[in-house]
Design brief:
Bound molecules: zinc ion, fe (iii) ion
Strand order of the largest sheet: 1-2-3-4-5-6
Strand content: 15-25%
Shape: globular
Helix content: 25-40%
Structural class: alpha/beta
Order of helices and strands: EEEHEHHEEEEEEEEHEHHEHHH
Number of helices: 9
Radius of gyration: 18 Å
Number of strands: 14
Length: about 250
């Protein structure tokens, strides 16, 4: 079983879960059908199903066309934009029989209200859409800051080895902000150098272990992050949601 990125738009990743032995393919968040259809033709694969994390167009915009062409199951949360054939609920197990994999659904509202993640415990992998990025997190469009903090806590409680397949290549920009917040954090400095060396190759998947060292949104209980947030806002803040809100809003303007 392989997981490969299919690039879409300017910085989206549509993730391809491929079983080369039987030529099966599942895809996650096809915002556009064309790159998926090209990928299927190039590698001679059979599309078996689609997983959707949330209702934004750059994640589910390709569903209708793929459904019309391949008529496969589409798993996703309840939302009129998603066109799910199988509406999922929190903690539900989804089996991908052709890939010998199963995923558990995790409810992680904040970026949107119905946003979910797919977690595979046996392989320790996570598809988290626009909630957690490498060195950053999604904007809080529909939910509350409190909801986003709780959602990130759910993801942060997974095993450190979990490989995180996020849906955008935002890493370098996120790291700029992270470095500004924590200029003396050596893990951030090392990661900036590492990502620069990739020269446009994907910087993801990342791991939870790494994110705990470099991602300010998972470090809202760390002294340096709290101090940076407080000096930006000009008042004292308690760790957790107050610090998170301060740095999320700061990042929006950064
Ligand atoms: Zn989104
Ligand atoms: Fe997105």
């Amino acid at each position: 079983m392989n997981i490969e990125p299919i690039k879409a738009f300017t910085d989206n990743y549509i993730w391809a879960i491929v079983n080369k032995a039987n030529k099966s393919l599942w895809i996650v968040d096809p915002g556009d059908a064309k790159p998926v259809i090209d990928y299927i033709a190039k590698h001679n694969l059979n599309l078996c199903g689609i997983l959707i994390t949330h209702h934004h167009e750059d994640h589910c915009g390709g569903v209708a066309e793929l459904q019309a062409k391949y008529s496969v199951p589409v798993y996703g949360p309840k939302h009129s934009n998603i066109l799910a054939t199988h509406v999922v609920t929190d903690k539900q197990t989804i089996v991908l029989p052709e890939c010998n994999l199963s995923f558990e659904v995790r409810w992680i509202p904040g970026h949107t209200l119905e946003h979910i993640a797919y977690y595979c415990a046996t392989e320790q992998l996570l598809f988290c859409g626009d909630t957690l990025f490498s060195a950053g997190c999604g904007r809080v469009f529909e939910g509350t800051m409190q909801q986003m903090v709780e959602s990130l806590q759910i993801l942060a409680s997974l095993p450190d080895e979990t490989r995180i397949y996020c849906a955008h290549e935002y890493t370098l920009k996120n790291l700029e902000f992270a470095k500004y917040l924590e200029p003396k954090n050596e893990a951030i400095t090392r990661q900036v150098a590492f990502v620069q060396c990739l020269q446009g190759k994907p910087s993801v998947p990342t791991t939870l272990a790494l994110e705990k060292k470099i991602n300010p949104f998972l470090r809202t209980d760390v002294g340096t992050v709290i101090t940076a947030a407080q000096s930006q806002i000009g008042t004292s803040l308690s760790e957790g949601v107050q610090v998170f809100s301060a740095i999320r809003e700061w990042k929006n303007r950064f």
